[in-house]
Write a structure and sequence with these properties.
This protein is α+β, with helices and mostly antiparallel strands. The protein has helices at residues 2-20, 82-86, 132-139, 204-228; strands at residues 29-38, 41-44, 59-67, 95-103, 120-127, 144-145, 151-153, 164-165.
Length: 229
């Protein structure tokens, strides 16, 4: 009887994982994604801006867009050119310079009733141990975070909402949005990854955790009954 219950729990865990791999991946969210400058191009961040500590001469990018996963997320449209961004900011002892590129996205990606501000590039001069999030805050206040440390707004944009599911998506937005948060990677987001895992649906860690709880709980019941027997 106990083994039957455990087998059932394993099947249930597999079903939970299978469900998460289906329609959830097609959900689209409106959110800030987080990028690293690589030469003149961009690479999606695998660590969040709150924990990443860029070196002097680094360029970090933030893009507001609508996408279902990190692979489809729009990159900042400006070049990741540190010299162009920070040429007017001389080096200073005990400080570092970090280029910050902020792409507020297109009118299509904007929340209803809002218009994206013009993209901007700023040179943040911050303490040597400052995080990417602190560099962003030095040049683009006000920032807005939710209770889970997810980055919701840069320079006050957007005015409300936080990684909201776009209209027409089939699943509730509460399932798990991409994260570009302060403590997460990539999907600022940035990524990243709280950036949930940055895939736009329930993160693999969340699904795996649910599955583990189901299986371990069933195993504990079975072992307790064996001891009593």
């Amino acid at each position: 009887m106990g083994r039957t219950r455990i087998a059932g729990a394993v099947l249930l865990a597999g079903a939970v994982t299978g469900l998460a791999a289906g329609p959830a991946q097609a959900q689209e969210y409106r959110y800030w994604s987080f990028w690293h400058g690589k030469g003149s191009s961009w690479a999606y961040a695998t660590e969040g801006p709150a924990t990443l500590r860029p070196a002097d001469g680094a360029v970090e990018g933030f893009r507001f867009a609508v996408s279902a996963d990190s692979a489809a997320a729009g990159k900042p449209r400006a070049s990741a050119d540190f010299d162009a961004i920070c040429h007017g900011t001389p080096a200073k002892d005990g400080r570092k310079r970090v280029g910050i590129v902020i792409d507020f996205g297109t009118a299509t990606a904007a929340p209803r009733g809002e218009r994206p501000p013009k993209a901007r590039a700023e040179c943040a001069q911050v303490p040597e141990d400052a995080s990417a999030g602190e560099a962003l805050a030095a040049v683009a206040r006000p920032l807005r975070y939710d209770s889970g440390a997810l980055l919701c707004a840069i320079a006050g944009y957007p005015k409300s909402g936080c990684a909201d599911q776009v209209e027409g998506a089939k699943e509730p937005a509460s399932s798990a949005a991409p994260s570009s948060g302060a403590a997460d990677g990539g999907d600022a987001g940035s990524g990243g990854d709280a950036n949930g895992g940055g895939d736009g649906g329930p993160s693999a860690g969340l699904v795996g955790g649910v599955a583990a709880v189901v299986v371990l709980g069933a195993a504990a019941v079975w072992q307790a009954r064996r001891r009593r027997g």
